[in-house]
């Protein structure tokens, strides 16, 4: 019974005979005798079901089918020869694919320097990037559909044994409000202190009490309950009960709603890099907890490519480079 597909040895024989146009010279080049070479070519033709060579007593010429097939076989052999170095590169984490998810806030702070560093060190790795909330990332990780994620702490405790967490950066919350509201709040605060409010427009802290009547624009609690509770606790510590106005999934949408005058939002400081017309970001005068963003991945499945990315993230976290991405006030 003939094999369903030819083997690489037969294909190399085919290319050599095609180049030499002589079985004797091809056999000598292959360091073998002519009879087994002829038999191998016959077996290849029978497997493919076509004649590759037109043979006479004095010459060997490619048939039209053989001539058309030759470049395809050469490309196939070239790819086969590249398997070993490719396998070695994959084992060293120098090639492959990294599937990475990230929360929208990371796109304005942590993500760009990490990707630049990783791209410089691993230019042959293909990145597959997906924006996703922290809860979605956990689900995708547990299902094996992504390799790692940049998420906001805390993660669900029930996955603590299956997921590893590497903190990268901590940043304070700031308040995003419309430019009109910021002007009113600053003017009132400046008048109380006898100051020119225009000189303090960009860096004067704002108290939550100054905007207590404004609706709060926030994401649904189910998406990131830990982050949601941190925001609510800020109001609770100040003795306030926030009035939730609008809910949105993405930070970009939340900021857009703020620009439309739909309310205020408490967002990580790195969101200041999201410059939206009509939106002002101000520090809070209250003591607020820091938001921690980190890398999460499955503990039981760390590929060489992922290990390389973890090393880069760890170096950024250790040197404080990730902290430096937060913009100045």
UniProtKB/TrEMBL annotation:
UniProt cross-references to SUPFAM superfamilies, sorted A to Z? Periplasmic binding protein-like II (SSF53850), Winged helix' DNA-binding domain (SSF46785)
Return any one Pfam family short name.
Answer: LysR_substrate
This entry's Gene Ontology molecular function terms read: DNA binding; DNA-binding transcription factor activity
Similarity comment: Belongs to the LysR transcriptional regulatory family.
One GO CC annotation, please? protein-DNA complex
Name of the protein: LysR family transcriptional regulator
UniProt keywords, alphabetically: DNA-binding, Transcription, Transcription regulation
Where does the HTH lysR-type domain start and stop, copy by copy? 6-63
């Amino acid at each position: 019974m003939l094999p369903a597909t030819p083997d690489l040895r037969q294909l190399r024989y085919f290319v050599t005979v095609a180049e030499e146009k002589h079985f004797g010279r091809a056999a000598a080049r292959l360091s073998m005798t002519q009879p087994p070479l002829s038999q191998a070519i016959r077996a290849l033709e029978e497997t493919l079901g076509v004649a590759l060579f037109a043979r006479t007593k004095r010459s060997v010429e490619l048939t039209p089918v053989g001539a058309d097939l030759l470049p395809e076989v050469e490309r196939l052999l070239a790819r086969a020869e590249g398997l070993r170095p490719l396998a070695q590169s994959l084992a060293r984490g120098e090639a492959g694919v990294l599937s990475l998810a990230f929360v929208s806030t990371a796109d304005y702070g942590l993500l760009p320097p990490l990707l630049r560093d990783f791209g410089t060190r691993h230019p042959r790795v293909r990145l597959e990037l997906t924006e996703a909330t922290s809860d979605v990332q956990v689900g995708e990780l547990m299902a094996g559909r992504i390799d790692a994620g940049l998420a906001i702490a805390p993660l669900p405790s029930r996955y603590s044994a299956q997921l590893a967490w590497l903190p990268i950066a901590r940043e304070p919350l700031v308040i995003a409000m419309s430019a009109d509201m910021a002007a009113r709040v600053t003017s009132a605060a400046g008048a109380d202190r006898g100051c020119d409010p225009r000189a303090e427009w960009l860096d004067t802290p704002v108290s939550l009490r100054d905007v207590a009547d404004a609706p709060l624009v926030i994401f649904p609690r189910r998406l990131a309950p830990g982050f949601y509770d941190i925001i609510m606790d800020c109001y609770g510590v100040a003795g306030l009960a926030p009035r939730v106005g609008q809910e949105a999934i993405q930070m970009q949408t939340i900021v857009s709603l703020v620009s439309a005058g739909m309310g205020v939002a408490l967002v990580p400081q790195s969101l200041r890099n999201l410059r939206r017309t009509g939106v002002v970001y101000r520090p809070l005068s209250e003591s607020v907890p820091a938001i921690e963003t980190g890398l999460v991945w499955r503990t039981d499945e760390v590929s060489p490519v992922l290990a390389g990315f973890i090393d880069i993230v760890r170096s950024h976290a250790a040197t404080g480079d990730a902290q430096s991405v937060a913009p100045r006030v």
